Amino acid sequence: MALLEVKNAGIQFGGLKAVSGFNMELRQGELVGLIGPNGAGKTTSFNLLTGVYVPTEGEIIFNGKRLNGLPPYKVTQSGISRTFQNIRLFSELSVLDNVKVAYHSLAKNSILSSIFRLPSHFSEEKNMENKALEFLKIFNLDNLKDEKAKNLPYGQQRRLEIARALAAGPKLLLLDEPAAGMNPQETHELMELIAFIRKQFDLTILLIEHDMNLVMGICERIYVLDHGQLIAAGTPEEIRTNPKVIEAYLGEEVTSEHA
Amino acid sequence: MKKSKPFWAFVILAAVVYGVVQFFTVSGLLNIYYSNLIITISINIILAVSLHLVIGITGQFSIGHAGFLAVGAYISAIATMKFELPFVLAIVIGGVVAALAGLIVGIPTLRLRGDYLAIATLGFAEIIRIMLFNIDYVGGAAGMQVTHFTTWTTTFVCLFITILVISNFTNSRHGRACISIRENEIAADAMGINTTFYKVAAFAIGSFFAGVAGALYSHNFYIIQPGNFGFLKSFDILIFVVLGGLGSLSGSVISAILLTIISAFLQQYPETRMIIYSLVLVIVMLYRPQGLLGTREITDLFKWKPAKGGH
Predict the structure, then answer these.
(1) For residue A255, what pLDDT is reported?
(2) Residues 6 or more apart from B22 whose CB is under 8 A from it?
(3) Are A98 and A66 in contact (CB under 8 A)?
(4) Could you tell me the strand order of the sheet in which A229-234 lies?
(5) Given A77, A114, A168, which is nearest B174 (Cβ)?
């Protein structure tokens, strides 16, 4: 059975169909790319998957459960976690606290237990702290744990955002342009990081990216969106030679009949 | 149960403050005017700290805090004057009813963001004030007679509990959830945090303590009138929080103390009072736009941090 199944999903803002007839199937452990020209509806489909938008048509089924209409925090709790195109860290919080926030929904102590400082408060806090520290070590961020997130260099912020998304314990990780604004060296490191976390955490990953080296290099399958419609799906090789994809990116080929 | 060092420092500081003021009051070294000023300062601190939770921590811009102050003041006054309940019970009732009012206002309005929330809360405070004007049971515009019950001890206990509860809440996973909402609501949502729940919870806790402050406030004067709870009162509280530094509990405490003292001192110059008061605010905001303490706490100043990051 597929981990994620998107059936004919779409969303309409007033008269504008941002995405329509979107079909997708992700199997456990796959690394899949979602590409398309600017404004094709890639981020919108991420927002559909994560509950930021409620689809106006179709169905999204994750792990056998229907996600339509669930608020984002419940989608996250059911196992889909994401990063953002424009980094959205909790900039005034420390690196450690950023990760701790992701563990929030795993802790069970009530507000009253924290106000009265009951034993459950201390045990849960200690637990979160240890887990978060361990996690930062994996990402080589442990020496920066007390730094405010906003003071990190750009590449580290991206790293922290991925770490934070993973700390929420997802089965499916959505990465929205993780390589945006990175130089080739950083992009290369990112590719290694993605391969590493996928193995380490037994993840299924869906990523949006404009950097074709990265997409073609690591993705097993690729979906292509244009004008809110799925125009192609297949292996990197198939996508590279697909005339519809070339047309969407470069425009229609000028043939002798047109001339 | 284990407690941290700052906790004991806070308890000792609190005991010293209480002891000193109590000593001066009992020995008669402090005249009525000053002991009353200290109670007013304490009430203002409670208000500032309770609004700090809503604005500074959770980032919800509410400018109707005087509405909850009014609810607490009138409900507790009704409890003691009409039902002759003990004052301590009246304080609790005032707080609880204000928290309920917070829930009723918060659940629909906390879906709104920024400016809209500010306008909605301002509107709520005005509704409360106008309602009080028109209810004869509580004296309407003429106001309500209230016996003087507020003492330094009750005020101090309330102040102590307020600071303890709000700082405990802030320094927990629940407080972190609230701060993450302030920092980036969409990301907080995406991290699995029920943002609506925490916004409403912070709002209700803030309202509870505003209600407690209201109970102390009404029993500190001999009369309360709806006019005391207008939007200017809301702005006074807002100014404490902003001037102290958004996100800093100790900042709001310090600015509440300073501004209350300045305001009391300026009462000797009624013609120029508001001009000077406004000037003080303008100057502070020009030179410390992030507020007196920014987002830091006073305890951070005593911590020696070894060389930061990058090694």
Answers:
(1) 63
(2) B152, B153
(3) no
(4) A80-82, A172-176, A204-208, A31-35, A221-226, A229-234
(5) A114
Smallest Cα–Cα separation from B151: which of B66, B206, B208, B91? B91
The total number of residues shown for chain B amounts to 311
Beta strand A221-226 pairing with A204-208: unpaired
CA distance A192 to A186: 10
Distance from CA of B174 to the nearest CA of A (A): 7
CA distance A258 to A252: 11
How many whole angstroms separate alpha carbon B117 and alpha carbon B122? 8
Q: Which residue is listed with tokens 């006073």?
A: B298
Q: pLDDT truncated to tens, each residue of chain B (311 aa)?
A: 445 677 888 889 999 999 988 888 888 888 888 889 999 999 999 999 999 999 999 999 999 999 999 999 999 999 999 999 999 999 999 999 999 999 999 998 888 777 788 898 999 999 999 999 999 998 888 899 999 999 999 999 999 999 999 999 999 999 999 999 999 999 999 999 999 999 999 999 999 999 999 999 999 988 999 999 998 899 999 999 999 999 999 999 999 999 999 989 888 888 887 888 888 888 888 888 888 888 788 777 666 444 443 33
Position A259 scores a pLDDT of 42
Residues A141-158 have a mean pLDDT of 92
Q: pTM, whole model, 2 decimals?
A: 0.90
Q: Which domains does chain B have, with CATH numbers?
A: 32-230 (1.10.3470.10)
Cα separation, B249 vs B179, whole angstroms:
13
**Chosen from B103, B171, B191 to mutate, greatest number of chain A CBs within 10 A:** B191
Check B192 against A92: CB less than 8 A apart: no
ipTM for the whole complex: 0.90
> What residues of A are in contact with residue B172 (Cβ under 8 Å)?
114-115, 121, 125
Reference A89, options B58, B195, B182, B173; nearest CA is: B182
Give the model confidence (pLDDT) of B169-204 as tens digits. 999 999 999 999 999 999 999 999 999 999 999 999
CB within 8 Å: A100 and B176: yes
HEC-encoded secondary structure of chain B: CCCCHHHHHHHHHHHHHHHHHHHHHHHCCCCHHHHHHHHHHHHHHHHHHHHHHHHHHCCCCCCCHHHHHHHHHHHHHHHHHCCCCCHHHHHHHHHHHHHHHHHHHHHHHCCCCCHHHHHHHHHHHHHHHHHHHHCHHHCHHHCEECCCCCCHHHHHHHHHHHHHHHHHHHCCHHHHHHHHHHHCHHHHHHCCCCHHHHHHHHHHHHHHHHHHHHHHHHCCCCEECHHHHCHHHHHHHHHHHHHHCCCCHHHHHHHHHHHHHHHHHHHHCCCCHHHHHHHHHHHHHHHCCCCCCCCCCHHHHHCCCCCCCCC
- Among A90, A116, A147, the residue with its CB nearest the CB of B187 is A90
